[in-house]
Design brief:
Number of helices: 5
Number of strands: 0
Shape: elongated
Number of domains: 2
Largest sheet: none
């Protein structure tokens, strides 16, 4: 019986170490993504577009940046027909998403989906 308890504790400790290592790898990947995006961009405006699409949609998903790009282009198309200062509004939307939806659009949708 004592051996089983010791074995269970050892397995739990090993699982914890694996989870911590996986989280650390994920954090390192997320931290390096903006730098990769900026290196891939050919101009400052393109770098801003790629970074905004990445963060708006949600880092760590395939659908997130695609959704973020769609939202960015939609805002750009709608607002550019009304004003030439559409970049100010996209910047405001970007800041609001970063503050109020830290997981991006996809991360927030996942959180809401798991609650309901």
């Amino acid at each position: 019986m004592a051996i089983n308890i010791a074995q269970k504790r050892a397995r739990k400790a090993q699982r914890r170490k694996q989870v911590v290592a996986q989280k650390r790898r994920a954090e390192e990947l997320e931290a390096s993504l903006p730098a990769r995006v900026l290196r891939a961009a050919r101009s400052p405006i393109q770098a801003c577009f790629l970074t905004e699409a990445l963060f708006d949609g949600g880092i760590g998903t395939l659908v997130g940046p695609i959704l973020g790009a769609m939202v960015f282009i939609l805002i750009q198309e709608v607002l550019s027909s009304y004003t030439e200062h559409w970049m100010i509004f996209t910047g405001v939307v970007f800041v609001l998403i970063v503050i109020f939806l830290p997981g991006g659009l996809v991360g927030t949708a996942r959180r809401l989906g798991t609650r309901g």
